[in-house]
Amino acid sequence: MSDDEREALAAEGEQSIAEQGRQANDERHAEHAERPVTGKSRHDGSGWSLY
What we know:
Elements (H helix, E strand, L loop, with lengths): L2 H32 L17
């Protein structure tokens, strides 16, 4: 495999990884947008004590 072929393959792999990362971020943002807003945070500390 020539250096040019190796560089082209590496660039293609980097683009693929970047696209997968963007898709994962989009999915996370979509899931967050679908959750109803209840007015309290997920971890409000209610019912927890260190003592």
